[in-house]
Specification:
By secondary structure, the chain is α/β, with parallel strands linked by helices. It has helices at about 45-55, 75-85, 100-110, 120-130, 145-160, 175-195; strands spanning about 1-15, 20-30, 35-40, 60-65, 70, 85-90, 165-170, 195-200, 215-220, 220-230. A hairpin with a 2-residue loop joins strand 9 and strand 10. Helix 3 (about 100-110) packs across helix 4, helix 3 (about 100-110) runs parallel beside helix 5 (about 145-160) and helix 5 (about 145-160) packs parallel to helix 6. The structure holds adenosine-5'-diphosphate and magnesium ion. Adenosine-5'-diphosphate binds near residues 14, 44, 45, 46 and 48.
Length: about 240
Amino acid sequence: MSALDLKDVRKVYGDGDQKVVALDNVSLSVADNEMLFIMGPSGSGKTTLLTVAGGLLQATSGSVVVGGTDISGFDGRELAAFRRDRIGFVFQAVNLVPFLTARENLLLVRQFGGGKIDTDARDRADSLLTDLGLADRAGNLPSQLSGGQQQRVAIGRALMNEPPLVLVDEPTSSLDSELGQQVMELLTKEIKSRGLAAVVVTHDDRILDFADRIVQIVDGKLTSDSSDNSSASPSGR
Ligand SMILES: Nc1ncnc2c1ncn2[C@@H]1O[C@H](COP(=O)(O)OP(=O)(O)O)[C@@H](O)[C@H]1O
Ligand SMILES: [Mg+2]
């Protein structure tokens, strides 16, 4: 079974003169435990692809299957529950809740998932924050954290409910090179050690070493050429 299967997915925004074909018959499979990168210029459809794959937006046509479940026909309520339990999002606008601490931002998603904020949840939040190098920042508000630290809290939040599929939009776009490498190292370690699958979209070619596989998107179309990057990885992942 694969973590994600897109088949002939089209997404068209607007109509008439305003019509934009953002995804043009995209088909894509992501294996369990695979870290897939999607590269493409601005406006090529990367964010649209993630929002459709994650059930935040309905495709115009085609099918979206996540971990064996076809979510194409789901209604809003079914989608919300599915997203909460099965998908982790790390999106560009980090969207931490501003009046909650780093730890509380993680615990909140456990609560959304219907779980209790018990010792288990607290231990998990604390161990994630420790793994992400934020142990001493757990009690800080987002406004008291740097951009890189906020990005790491967002990663912790996405992993809190152990979703089998994690979708990541331009994780390094607001970070300098060194911080970008650090955030990607942490993200990769968390994903790999938990056996999760991830789709990372980016136009940052400084982080491509972290990919198991890279596909290109141009004008809403994936190029058929997809390279296996596993032997090229300098850190031997
Ligand atoms: N909500 C929207 N309404 C209309 N057009 C949109 C909307 N979101 C994105 N688009 C258009 O769809 C195309 C793909 O956008 P997007 O997926 O954001 O690309 P990327 O993330 O690669 O920059 C662009 O032409 C963009 O202008
Ligand atoms: Mg985008």
